[in-house]
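Service request form, structural biology core

Requester: graduate student, group of Dr. S.
Request type: structure prediction, single chain
Budget code: on file
Notes: please return the result as structure tokens.

Sequence provided:
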Amino acid sequence: MFTVFRARCVRFSGSRRAAYMQSSEPSDGGAELCDAEANCIEEQLALREALNEISSKCRRLIHAYYLEGQSLKEAARTVALADSSVARTISRCLKRLRECMA
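Core staff response, request fulfilled:
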């Protein structure tokens, strides 16, 4: 979920930068970029609200694994979980996050 969200925003940023570099004059593509930017901002706000609704343990685990790029073993140490249960816990946390965003 985070990877998809981050990829969309990065793609948007790249397309916006490319459009700006190609032309200094506004064109019809500007409206599309504004829509894409608005969608990206809306998704980001929804994600922040959903992250506030899940437990702090889930937030720390998701942050460590997806945003900091830690391995499962490193993320498990971050929240004091057994290595064998961290993948299931991340799965449950993502399920809760999806439910909150729905």
